[in-house]
Every structure is written in C-alpha cells, then in structure tokens.
Amino acid sequence: DGGITQSPKYLFRKEGQNVTLSCEQNLNHDAMYWYRQDPGQGLRLIYYSQIVNDFQKGDIAEGYSVSREKKESFPLTVTSAQKNPTAFYLCASSILHRPSYEQYFGPGTRLTVT
Amino acid sequence: DAKTTQPNSMESNEEEPVHLPCNHSTISGTDYIHWYRQLPSQGPEYVIHGLTSNVNNRMASLAIAEDRKSSTLILHRATLRDAAVYYCILLTGGTSYGKLTFGQGTILTVHP
After folding, report:
1. Which letter does DSSP use for residue A40 in this model?
2. 3-state secondary structure (DSSP) of residue A108
3. Which residue among B97, B102, B105 places its CB closest to the CB of A98?
4. With an 8 Å Cβ cutoff, are A100 and B51 in contact?
5. Which is the most buried residue in A17, A95, B24, B54, by most CB within 10 A?
6. Which residues 48-87 in chain A show a CB within 8 A of chain B?
7. What is the mean pLDDT of residues A22-28?
8. Residue B95 has pLDDT above 80, yes or no
9. Phi/psi at B17 (nearest 5 deg)?
C-alpha cells in the first residue's frame, strides 16, 4: 500500500531537549511538507521541500529544522529554541510542488513537551 | 495570501445532500480551489480541487461560481462517516504555489 507514515504517534519530551519526528512516503512524490496544528486551529506550514537536498521555510520555521537526503524521507527536528513545541505535527507529500496537485497527509505525531 | 471564508458549522441528516459554501473574493486567476476534510486526531484527507470548471469525483462535486469568487462543495448523500471539519483552501501561483493555507474550516455534523 502506498502512503505516508509518521512515527511515533505520540511523543513526550522534556523542555530543552531536541526531538526528531519521522516522515516517510512511498508514493514517489517529489514534494514534501511539514505542518503544525494547534487545538481548534487550521494547519500552518513549517517547511517544505520540492526536491531532494532542497527545502524552504514556511510561515513558522523558527525553532525547527529539516533535511531531505532521500526522496522518501523528510524528518523534522523540533529544537529547544521552539517556544511552544506542544502541538499536532502533520507531514504531507505531493507529486510536485504545484497548486494543481493535491497533498496527501500522514496520520500525524502528537508532541507533548513538559 | 488570498483568504477563504466558511461558515463555522453546518448540520445535515444522513442520506441527504450537503452544500458547503466557501467565499474567496480575492482569488486570482491562477489560484486553485482545494477542499480537504479532517477527522479528530487524524491527518487531513484530500476531497477535490478545481480551477474554473465544475469538478466531480467519487467523493464529491465542486461547483465554482462563474466569477470564481465563491465555490460550493457538494456531498450528494451524506453519511455518518462524512462528519468532519471541511477546509476550503486556495493554492496560489507564484512563489507560494503548492502551499496550503488552512483556515478554521466548517464543522459538519451528520445526524442519523
């Protein structure tokens, strides 16, 4: 089955620790995205990547970092510089980074930092 | 970024059609209209998208006004599984193309 996997589903960390969220896709999509969702809110774009070894900041990139070393993988690191890291994190992919293509989402990782 | 306006909530009965409206008066000629839906604690699911013409797929239909300043997502026969938050989003061309900007969405409640 083709799709996007995110792990783990739930993640707990202490304040001051960096944490890396996994995102893998086997859809052969070039574009991948990371979004953050806070309770009762819509999604906000953190980072996106149009192709391997390339990525751009979204609307709320401060305190986050990403890498895109392989087409299938786009991990997100939440650093200690992120002031409010507790949120629901969603990874998505698309055939190409174009408005005519839909995005497919993973199941999400709920991060709680205390 | 161009913005969309949706009602906060709507209700429907099972087996009845549902028309979910969206206003996007500042849409530009290269903006695509996308609809996604999201169940609690799950990732959004793509529903449908279009540019100028009405679109149909197995999940829904998208009716786009002639001036493109509004659109309507049509679920032909609502089921309990259609209860979700529905987001109407514009994907813009230019330097931001491909970026989804989600608003608050419409909470759809389906009654048995």
Report:
1. T
2. coil
3. B97
4. yes
5. B24
6. 48, 50, 58
7. 96
8. no
9. -75, 150
Residues B7-39 pLDDT 10s: 999 999 999 999 999 999 988 888 899 999 999
A99 close to B97: Cβ distance less than 8 angstroms: yes
Residue A31, pLDDT score: 93
Q: Which residues contact B44 (CB under 8 A, 6 or more apart)?
A: A43, A90, A92, A105, B36, B37, B38, B87, B102
Q: What is the pLDDT of residue B85?
A: 95
Give me A40's structure tokens.
């009762």
How do residues A61-79 score in pLDDT, each as one tens digit?
999 999 999 999 999 999 9
Contacts of B99 in chain A (CB under 8 A): 45, 48, 58
CB B67 within 8 A of CB B2: no
